[in-house]
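DATA SHEET
Item: assembly model
Revision: 1
Owner: S.N.
Input lines:
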Amino acid sequence: MPELRIEALTHVYSAGTPFQKTAIENIDLTIPQGQMIGLLGHTGSGKSTFIQHLNALLKPTSGRVLCDGKDVNADKFSRRDVKWQVGLVFQYPEYQLFEETVYKDIAFGPKNRKLSESEIDERVREAAAFVGVDEELFERSPLELSGGQKRRVAIAGVIAMRPGVLVLDEPTAGLDPAGCRQILDNVAAYREKTGSTVILVSHNMDDAARMAERLIVFDHGHVAMDGTPEEVFREPRRLIDIGLNVPHASAIAMALRERGVALEGSIYTHEQLKAAILRAKEVGAC
Amino acid sequence: MEPVIVFEQVHHRYSGEAEESLRGIDLAIESGSFTAVLGHNGSGKSTLAKHMNAILTPTEGRVLVHGVDTADEDRLLDIRRSVGMVFQNPDNQIVANVVEDDVAFAPENLGVPSEEIRRRVDEALEIVGMSEFKQHAPHLLSGGQKQRVAIAGVLAMQPEIIVLDEPTAMLDPQGRAEVIATVTRLCREKGMTVVLITHHMDECVGADRLVVMSGGRIVADGSPAEVFSRVELMESEGLSVPETTRLLYDLDREGFDLPLTALEIDDCAELVARTLIK
């Protein structure tokens, strides 16, 4: 299982043209194996550019990405190898389904890696089980499935590579609340079972607060905040200044504090908010 | 208020499907109102929306738009003129290379005189707050901006009613906020009838009326405050309620004795603070 180190990573699009744009600048981060990370930031903050460096889809303008100490851009072999280790699920991955059957689509990655038929079969079944795709669907065309099912098939295709680092860019975008919960539960189960690192790019603060043990906030191509949810949500104003939402529970806690209610601790979940209010009631609010 | 769209015992079954997607809908949408329709995937909410401008017609029952039966093919153009639709994916709705040409597309097709088109396009872009982008290329806009251009394109047809089928599903939080603010303004300032289909409960908070769909039926219908206060019902339908309602509900069960009607964060905080600070 790999550890990722990002050193002084900078990426400039269309360098030397009038459209030159620095998307990320001087990013230093260490991502130990097994962490569950929420990557936050609004559109254009550099999140997507950043994650595409993690498996060498983009080449740094300057700086390095190290996977287990090895520069992922050292040569064409390292650029290939890192793609087995770091699995990237793009936004709306269901648009990338293309095979005739669900089974073939999930098997595409392992097959490219020239694994044996039995190994491929094992991985396809395992990946499908992780994301809750029923084996009865294996012979169906992926295009006949519902939106949520398609999304799960696309994620299974990446999981079938057994990546040590799973990066998901907005995996719940466009799904209804039940579909969102299901996908996030599947991802959590995958991590629990395999010990993989998971990087979840999200706009949804409530999901990030609930899922992640570490939050990294991007703003204008820089890392603006990096810490546990408790640390990050202790500064709700800062998140709001960056243009992000705060979890609903944090927003209510802020409004209560503004009204002179003394609430203890960093509050970002419903349970914390409820407990803090009950405590405030017991001790007398002011 | 007079109803502008009326559903009478509407059933719909897609061809080849065993189950009905709509199972006996009775619904009257009042003129000038803002109605949100909430439900998860497969609840029938999009099927309901598509009956409002005759993209779909009932397999049983009928839908009337200003008293005109949507199944009457001779009146299709009238219906489509009075009810404009905005869809989920902004990229699928934009046809031209320049924002103002895109907005002009529908009135041009309707044969509106060119001076009138100019006036309508300017006004529509003004309403959605996109005037400064009128010479821009749509594909370079953000999702929220594209969706506002798509709304302007519908407004240029001057419909009385605008139906939006999950217009924010593919947008980031900022884009969602822009679109919801625009839609709310259309109703409150321009007096348009708005029907918003969504699965984001927080987008329903500002509506006059909230209709909840499940399994092809309407399972709740009332003001957002009334509907969300039925926490058990909403949860049994697999829908969540806003954090404000959930908090008031939980505190109420802990003996706080609070009404569940405060949906906005400030109102909720005010209620809770008042009980705590005596």
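QC remark: Residues 3-241 of chain B form a domain with the Rossmann fold fold (CATH 3.40.50.300).
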